[in-house]
Design a protein that fits this description.
Number of strands of chain A: 12
Order of helices and strands of chain B: EHEHEHEHEHEEEEHEHHEE
Strand order of the largest sheet of chain A: 2-1-5-4-3
Largest interface: A-B, 26 and 26 residues
Oligomer: heterodimer
Strand content of chain B: 15-25%
Strand content of chain A: 5-15%
Largest sheet of chain A: 5 strands, antiparallel
CATH class of the largest domain in chain B: Alpha Beta
Number of strands of chain B: 12
Radius of gyration of chain B: 18 Å
Strand order of the largest sheet of chain B: 2-1-3-4-5
Largest sheet of chain B: 5 strands, parallel
Structural class of chain A: alpha+beta
CATH architecture of the largest domain in chain B: 3-Layer(aba) Sandwich
CATH topology of the largest domain in chain B: Rossmann fold
Distance between the termini of chain B: 20 Å
Shape of chain B: globular
Order of helices and strands of chain A: HHHEEHEEEHHHEHEEHEEHEE
């Protein structure tokens, strides 16, 4: 089985694909939201430290507290504090790393205020650090654990990239500039007084956290995908289950068992309707096959009896020497059997031609009334033999058709009417024009046909008494009659009253 | 042996009747179901050849009604050779089946087998003392030498041999050896018995006075 050609697996595939897309969309969004939340928090932390540092710087600046304007949003909580004078600070402990060889001396000493010390503790997993530089790039202060690897753009780089720097514009309106390099994040804040404060930290704990979040999102997503695929697979199999029933039934039918049907239990879906339609089709197919088989069996059966006659007659005759008269009888019996077979075979072939639409009908204009009269004359001896009276009541009527075939119709109907009549009965034939239609009616005064047999009258090998009643009666006469009438675009109907008689009515399009 | 043929095709009926008469059977015929059933119920035939498709009562119906009163072996003639038809026939009480068109030799063999089985014989060769009867070839041997015997005499010998040990009445013999068209005189039977005794030995057929004849 080609797995990707199966509807079930294709549905599964698409379904799984959509599920993967939806899940990854959700997962990605959730991950991004979490990442933004974490980084925003980190940025807030950094910004908070910048604010604290800038406040401290402003207080410690040699140009006085007013030289460094407070940043916007900066809580002015440190301003009311007792601040040591900057002069003292110059002599105080200098926690920041100093690189005297390279950098010019700082303009003043800056010490981390105690209330900010906890913000830059070395034990903090984020490892916050800071760096403060003067307007001319000299280092004022740095945390001890400033990562040496950091090679971020120095002060004013972002501004110099800007073609029109606006030093007068208030920097507090601009959002803190965040720079990222590897695990490190930094905010660089340029104070109006020219000092540059950089606060950075390592985002490693957040990234670890994010990796964990991504992993658990992936795990949950995978789980949902698996469950979804399983449930989807179950649903698909369940809804497609009638298909396997349909195909199994079709396979069995194709193998020759026409009695097979698709089980309909619990299939109210579209497939159930399909199964119902298919079952109806199968039933029609079976009926058609049964009819065909019955027809073939009947035809074979009809041919068997004359063959049995010939075999019996000839084998008996050949068993010993006989007189000429005896041989003559045998030959006559054989001839009768052969004639019967010929009639039967001709009828079968005619029917087969009508069935296949291969019967070529002549299209001549002729007077149907004359044909009816001729036929009545033809069957008169048979009627006389049975004491049946034929009364003909016809009006001249021209139609277009095959005169010989239509004569066959009339003769068949007349012969039937005579054969199934009571002795001293009557056959009435009438032909008239009704609304542009030629109506031929043949009525007898026989036993009539039982109502349940009426639909089978035109069937092949139907016989009123379920047995052969003479060499001329093949049981195909009415079937051929019907085929001829229908080939002329007409209809034939039968009406019968038991013990009163039967009337066959033929309607043919007339050409007036 | 007397056989009834029920068949509606006149040429087939005539041919069969002639062939069976020439085989030494007494043959009655009927060309429709009602007459066939009437004959079959009124006479003890040795076998009945019954066509399935008949006007009036069909073969199945005749068989079904006949089976209520008689166990006469019935061989069905049918043009339908489908298994369900055969099964239906055998289940309805038919003893055997021949599908049209058939060979006469096969029909004869099946009839002989039917008659033999209904008399509880299993082989076609009956041996009574030093007389043996080949029912297949319809020959009689005395001490392994063939005996010239007429068809009617053969029928008498065969019937008595098939009912060996039973006393067969003169009426039974008449019924089984002559058909309804025979107008034989009653002493014709005595003539046949006397001829057989001349050919096969006086002790071959025993006369039970007031009862009938018997082969012991």
């Amino acid at each position: 089985m080609k797995i990707f050609k199966s509807i079930k697996w294709r549905l599964q595939l698409w379904y799984g694909l959509i599920l993967v897309l939806v899940l990854s969309g959700f997962g990605f969004t959730a991950y991004e939201l979490e990442k933004n939340r974490q980084f925003r928090r980190l940025n807030d932390e950094l910004h908070q430290r910048v604010v604290v540092l800038s406040a401290a710087l402003r207080r410690q600046s040699p140009r006085g507290p007013n030289a460094v304007r407070p940043l916007s949003g900066q809580p002015p909580r440190h301003q009311n504090r007792e601040e040591p004078p900057p002069e003292e600070l110059l002599d105080g402990p200098f926690p920041a790393r100093n690189s005297p060889g390279q950098m010019p001396r700082p303009p003043f000493h800056f010490s981390l205020p105690p209330e900010a010390a906890h913000l830059f503790e070395a034990t903090d997993p984020n490892g916050y650090y800071y760096s403060i530089r003067s307007r001319d790039g000299r280092e004022i202060a740095e945390s001890i654990d400033l990562p040496g690897l950091l090679k971020l753009p120095r002060r004013g780089d972002a501004q110099t990239a800007d073609p029109s720097p606006k030093p007068l514009s208030p920097p507090d309106t601009s959002p803190p500039r965040v720079q990222v390099s590897g695990n490190l994040r930094e905010i660089c804040e340029l104070l109006p007084s020219g000092e540059e404060i950089r606060v950075g930290c390592s985002a490693a704990p957040e990234l670890r956290e994010l990796r964990r979040t991504a992993l658990s999102l992936g795990a949950v997503g995978g789980l949902i995908l698996l469950v979804g695929l399983a449930v989807g697979g179950w649903l698909v199999s369940r809804s497609l289950r009638p298909l396997s029933g349909i195909s199994a039934a079709a396979v069995r039918i194709a193998a020759g068992d026409l009695s097979q049907r698709i089980p309909l239990a619990g299939t109210e879906s579209e497939l159930g309707q399909l199964a119902t339609v298919l079952n109806a089709t199968f039933a029609r197919l079976e009926r058609a096959f049964a009819q065909q088989r019955q027809f073939a069996a009947d035809a074979a059966h009809e041919l068997r009896t004359p063959v049995a006659v010939i075999l019996t007659q000839t084998q008996t005759s050949l068993a010993r020497e006989r007189e000429a008269a005896s041989y003559r009888q045998t030959v006559e019996a054989c001839q009768r059997a052969a004639q019967r077979m010929r009639t039967l075979i001709e009828s079968l072939l005619a029917l087969a031609r009508f069935d296949a639409g291969q019967e070529v009908l002549k299209r001549l204009r002729f007077d149907l009334a004359k044909t009816v009269g001729d036929c009545a004359g033809l069957v008169q001896p048979l009627a006389d033999e049975r004491g049946v009276k034929i009364s003909v009541e016809v009006e001249s009527l021209e139609i277009a058709g095959d005169p010989e075939r239509l004569a066959q119709v009339v003769t068949n109907l007349l012969t039937n009417a005579i054969q199934y009549n009571r002795t001293e009965g009557e056959v009435r034939v009438s032909l008239k024009l009704e609304n542009g239609v030629a109506v031929l009616a043949v009525a007898d005064t026989g036993q009539g046909i039982a109502a349940q047999d009426l639909p089978r009258v035109f069937g092949r090998f139907y016989r009123a008494d379920s047995s052969r009643t003479g060499a001329g009666n093949t049981g195909l006469g009415l079937a051929i009659t019907k085929a001829i009438v229908e080939a002329h675009g007409g209809t034939i109907e039968v009406a019968s009253a038991e013990a009163a008689g039967t009337t066959f009515t033929v309607q043919l399009p007339a050409t007036v | 042996m007397r056989i009834l043929i029920v068949e509606d095709e006149p040429d087939l009926l005539a041919g069969l009747a002639q062939a069976l008469r020439e085989e030494g059977y007494a043959v009655d015929t009927a060309d429709n179901g009602e007459d066939g059933l009437f004959n079959a119920e009124g006479t003890d035939y040795d076998a009945i050849v019954l066509d399935v498709m008949l006007p009036g009562l069909d073969g199945w119906e005749v068989l079904k009604r006949l089976r209520k009163t008689k166990k006469t072996p019935v061989l069905m003639l049918t043009a339908r050779d489908q298994a369900r038809d055969r099964v239906k026939g055998l289940d309805t009480g038919a003893d055997d089946y021949v599908v049209k068109p058939f060979d006469l030799s096969e029909l004869f063999a099946r009839l002989r087998a039917l008659i033999r089985r209904s008399a509880n014989q299993t082989t076609s060769l009956l041996e009574i003392g030093n007389v043996s009867i080949d029912t297949a070839a319809r020959n009689v041997f005395l001490k392994r030498k063939p005996v010239e015997i007429t068809a009617r005499e053969y029928a008498l010998v065969a019937f008595l041999a098939l009912h060996r040990g039973e006393v067969v009445t003169r009426t039974q013999l008449y019924e089984h050896l002559f058909d309804e068209n025979d107008s034989s005189l009653s002493n014709l039977l005595d003539v046949h018995v006397s001829n057989i005794r001349k050919k096969l030995g006086a002790e071959f057929i025993v006369t039970r006075r007031g009862h009938g004849y018997c082969i012991e």
